[in-house]
Amino acid sequence: MAVEPEAAALARFRDEDPGGPVVMLNLLRFGEGGFGAYQEYGRQLRDTFLPRYGAKVLYAGSAATVLVGDAGQTWDAVVVVRYPDRATFSAMIADPDYLAVARLRAEALTEAVLQATVPWR
């Protein structure tokens, strides 16, 4: 299963930019022993990259009881991050320093959803 965005998805993400901040929803499923690697990724993201790019974690936590959902729709964790805009997010994930750390995320996960959100007006 995919854990990193593909080039076509990133192009669509940039093309569909409504302007303004973007809040990214992360639904995460960890592989065996993956939680520790993700924690290290998260620490480096929080301490280095989010401040560098003016982003902020709005929520991070373990997923709990599923009230509505089909089999296979359960997740281990949810992370919600706000970025100043889509261009900033795109710049961060292309940063060579970030790419060196992003391998921890890829190693930690067996599956993920990374979805941009647009606020209701």
From TrEMBL:
This is DUF1330 domain-containing protein. PANTHER family: DUF1330 DOMAIN-CONTAINING PROTEIN (PTHR40257:SF1), PTHR40257. Residues 37-111 form the DUF1330 domain. Pfam families: DUF1330. SUPFAM superfamilies: Dimeric alpha+beta barrel. Gene3D superfamilies: 3.30.70.100.
